Please model this.
Amino acid sequence: MSEDAATTVDAMTDSAVAGIPFLDDATRPKAPVIPGVTPAQHAPGRRLSLYHRHHLEELAAVRYALERLVAGTGAIEAVSDRMTSLSMIENYHTFGNLCGRQCQLLEMHHDIEEGSLYPLLGRNVGLRPVLDRLGAEHRTVYALLERIRETSNAIGSDPTRKSILALNEIYGVFERIVISHFGYEERELEEAIGFYDAL
Model:
């Protein structure tokens, strides 16, 4: 998360993301330089960004569906306790389905990193603070995913404008966190992934 995003999140104490453990990007440790890393060893580390791009494309598809949902509710001036607009319900179902699949893929991606990639890279003692931080950031991502699921479920039973806007807020923070996390991981692990033949 950028410094601007960190400030924004910190100010949201009464928001839909209150209680989630956010970390300050300024406290992210840096990976030590690995002497003698060749251009060929940089290539596998850059491959991580290809995996991340796929996830980011999926996140963008969810964002599009969520924007449609928000736009559909924005046209309704008087919100009853149940919204019955077919367009709104269709948009909700599209978002919920996409998010469900994407949430599973992202969790699987993080599980693979923590179960396989990080232990291999942890042979470099200097990388351990970076790996610990990445693991802590995964826990923030999981907390946001859980909040997205809870809010999506609430919308399913009571699709109010307030709950839809809460989902939009949570998802916006989630996107910013994931984009920042991916960038940090790519920058700090690029050399190590190829050097230790970890990917």
